[in-house]
Amino acid sequence: MADLWWVYSKPTPADGRELWTLFLQCSCITAVIGGLFYNWMFASLEYSWHLSIAVSISFSLLLLLTLFLVHPARCVFSMIMPTLGTKQGRKLLLSTCVMIAVVNITPNIMSNIKTVLQIIKCICKNSSDSLLNSTALLQTASREFGDAIQETIHSSTIYKPMNGRFQFSLLQNTSSIYQQMDLAGEKIRRDFLSVEVLVKDSVRVGNRLVAGFSMFYLCFESTWYLKNYLTNLCFDNFYITKKLERLAVERKAAHLLVDSSKNLIRPTGLKLSREEVMLCLVQAMLLSVALMLMLVVVAMDHFAFSVADTALRKAAQFSVVPVTLHIKYKAKIWILPFFLGLPSEEIPLQDFEKNYHHHLIFSSAQCRISPPMPPNPSVLLVVGLLFCILYSTVFLETYASRLCRKIAASFFQSWEEKRVLYLYRKLSRRQKK
């Protein structure tokens, strides 16, 4: 591995063997990166497969030529890998989490809301049907009751009142009601569909913009680091490296490193400075805000499923409400005597007593209701793992920066010796003062 890295980090290959080794290394790297780039564009950013293939192949060929021919480009590309563990890599992972949530959780919430609306529509339709059918019951009762009154009138020869039939109007034009209900349901469905499409498109476009900006900034940050490393001797130069220790031993000034141990850090050690610790805490707080927003979306998914499942079970438990119309009618004639002292006579004419039964139905098995969609546990697992990686990158960012410095030092060893000599002289001047 050391020999392969030596060939990879050299400015120019020494012979044909090193040239072919470098070409094979660059080819393997570009093949892996091209495959990951295609999967990222097609699965995460949701580009079409033919566009993803064309862009990934073009990117791989361009990357192969750049890595094989340009030595500083290999250094910049090598520093991009640890830079993924910094805030730019967190932005990419966070955008992936958002895309996963939008693609998988948001449609689930919309589907459960549609289920609740379908249940409400079913209850409204069945209850309206029952109420409209109850008017037919009233019409039957009024007709039979009116016939009974007419018989009473015809049987009476003394007094004949006006026509005693009830006039009851039955609402028979139910198609207009059903049409209005269908139009209202279709409008609600279109509104929800348009909102769902708008949210998906907005998040997809935003995710692509964030991903493109993050990739550009990754390259820019690595290039900026290499530029400062090669032009500024003070930049990121406070590490006790092996070259610095060897230089101090050669000049018999090993005590300089002991006296400056509070200000210098070993690049392979786990010690963090106070500034690095505060920066990690701030980044962790910002990441916690994003985690809280993601948890709100997940809670909405569970709440929508709970409401839809409860509404479906309660609607199935709705009992049929019996309605009974009881009509009791008794007609009599009292004959008053013409002479005082004679008893009065009561003559029954007509007795009518009948019960009419009807049932109010609020739910029916004929309603087309889609079942509630439970939250997908695999999505929650993936989002949880990504956030664990995000929190780990908060504390690994400092070590990623140290790895970038080590990569730059291995690519430009002569310049690293100048930086070590500059740091040694700086420590010597500080001790003399």
UniProtKB/TrEMBL annotation:
Location of the protein in the cell: Membrane
InterPro entries assigned: CSR-E3_Ligase_Protein, DC_STAMP-like
Primary residence: membrane
Record domain Dendritic cell-specific transmembrane protein-like: where: 235-424
GO annotations of cellular component type: membrane
This protein's UniProt keywords: Membrane, Transmembrane, Transmembrane helix
Name of this protein: OCSTP protein
PANTHER family: DENDRITIC CELL-SPECIFIC TRANSMEMBRANE PROTEIN, OSTEOCLAST STIMULATORY TRANSMEMBRANE PROTEIN
Sequence intervals crossing the membrane: 20-41, 53-72, 92-111, 277-300, 378-396
Topology versus the membrane: Multi-pass membrane protein
Organism in which the protein naturally occurs: Pitta sordida
